[in-house]
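Box 3.1 A note on notation
Throughout this textbook, protein chains are presented in two layers. The first layer is the amino acid sequence; the second is a token string describing backbone geometry. Keep the layers aligned when reading.
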Amino acid sequence: MKKFLLLLLFTTTHFHAQIKSGEITYGLTLGYDEKLSNDDRFSSIFEKAQNGAKKIAFTLFFNNEVSLFKVNDIITDKEISLAKAFTGGNNIYYTEINSDKKMKEINSSGYGKFIINYTKKIDWVILNETKYINTYLCYKATTETTVVNSKGTFKFPVTAWFCPSIPFNYGPYGYDGLPGLILELTERYTTYGALKINLSKERDVIEKPNKGKTVTQEEFNEIIKTQPTF
């Protein structure tokens, strides 16, 4: 495993000087979920959300200092609104390279707009499994995420496929910390998969999110505990 990580580090260092910024477009897939798909109250709603997810795309903007992940503008219908509700699709995620400090802009009709500054170190397990995504060789990594809502605290598995030849430790939905950019990410029933990859030798400027009331993650967790959830 040490030799494997050293190889990834060498690959990242070799290409780092060439790429200064980029944009990755991701499609969204809502897969099967045993609880939601078999629940009489939510199964039809979840099916509509699955249809809506096929109409949505996200973009990860990044340079050699920061990244920003957000949904692309689209005319919204009921299915799209449901897909966003199940995935937090209106949220914006902002991360700094090689830092545990993160920021997200929450935008929900349920509880309003907030800016959350938080610190999160993701403990990845890198596996010696590979596959190609858009001609890029990617490696598999796993971790887990903790979700807090009105029904309690839950843990779900996360799988990422990252590309060492795109030498930035960013990814969709606020995930980062791997020796290469994440081109596919699955969290519970949600998958973000790269559709289009644009890389540049020029450095693009990326602005921080700035709309909403600033709160800590702990304060926001208390707010959403009082809100209904799927």
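The longest strand covers residues 136-149. The radius of gyration is 18 Å.
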